[in-house]
Amino acid sequence: MNQRLILKSGSPRRNQILHSLGLDFDTTPARISENLLSGEACLDYLKRITLAKLEIPLCDPDSVYISSDTIVLLGNRIYFKPADKNDAFRILTELSGKTHEVIFGIGFCKGGEVFYDFDTTAVRFRNWEAREIQKYIDEHRPFDKAGSYGIQDKEGPVSDFVGSYSNVLGFPLRKFYTFFEIWQKFLSSD
C-alpha cells in the first residue's frame, strides 16, 4: 500500500505551514461537531475535539493522519471563532488590555496508534479603542480565527507574547517536531 500523510483540516494557515516544511500531504477536513459539552474542562474539550478530528474509525492503517485545534482562553472561558462582526467586536473588546492563552492541540493516528499533545502561548493584547477594533475587523475580517485575531496582522491587537509564535499563527511547530519520526518520511525530496 502507498502510505499517505493526511491533514484533517481545511485551515489555509496550517496547509501553508506544512507546505513550507516541504511535506508531501493530502488535505481532508474532518466534519465533526465542535460544541462544548456541559461542564467540560477547557483542556478536556481541546483534546476531545483534536482527537475527534482524526476520525479514527475511518483511518487507513497504512497512512498517517494529523489533526489539530486551537482554543483561546481567558480565565476559564473559551473564545471560539466569531459568529459575525458583532461577536468579533465583543471578543476583541473583552480581550483588550489582557493576557490570554492560546492552546493548540495536535493529534496523530498512525497504524492504529493515537498520539496527542498541546502547546500553550501567553498573548497580551494592547489596550485599544472601539474605533480601532472596528477598523481591524473591517480590514482583516478575522471570522475564521479563534479569538477573532491573527498574530501576524499589521496594526493588530497583540502587544507581545511568551511562547511559540507558530502556535498562535495556526500550527504548533515545537510540538510537531517532537513527533518527527511519525512524519519524516513524507518530507519532499525536491
Question: Can you summarize this structure?
Answer:
The protein has 190 residues and is an alpha/beta fold.
Structural commentary:
By secondary structure, this protein is an alpha/beta fold. The chain is 30% helix and 26% strand. Strands 1, 2, 3, 4, 5, 6 and 7 form a seven-stranded mixed β-sheet that branches. The model has no long low-confidence stretch (mean pLDDT 93).
Characteristics:
alpha/beta, single chain, 190 residues, Maf protein, 30% helix
Uncertain segments are none
DSSP summary, beta strand count? 7
Oligomer: single chain
Tell me the number of helical segments per DSSP (H or I, 4 or more residues long). Answer: 7
Q: Cα distance, first to last residue?
A: 23 Å
Q: In terms of structural class, how would the helical and strand content be classed? A: alpha/beta
The percent range for helix content is: 25-40%
What form results from the Cα inertia axes? globular
CATH architecture: Alpha-Beta Complex
What characterizes the major β-sheet?
7 strands, mixed
Following the backbone from N to C, one meets helices and strands in this order, namely EHEHEEHEEHEHHH
Please render the helix and strand layout as text.
Layout: E1 5-7, H1 12-20, E2 26-27, H2 42-52, E3 64-74, E4 77-79, H3 85-95, E5 99-110, E6 113-125, H4 130-140, E7 158-162, H5 165-169, H6 173-178, H7 180-183
Parallel strand pairs: 1-2, 1-3
Antiparallel strand pairs: 3-4, 3-5, 5-6, 6-7
Helix pairs in contact: 3-4
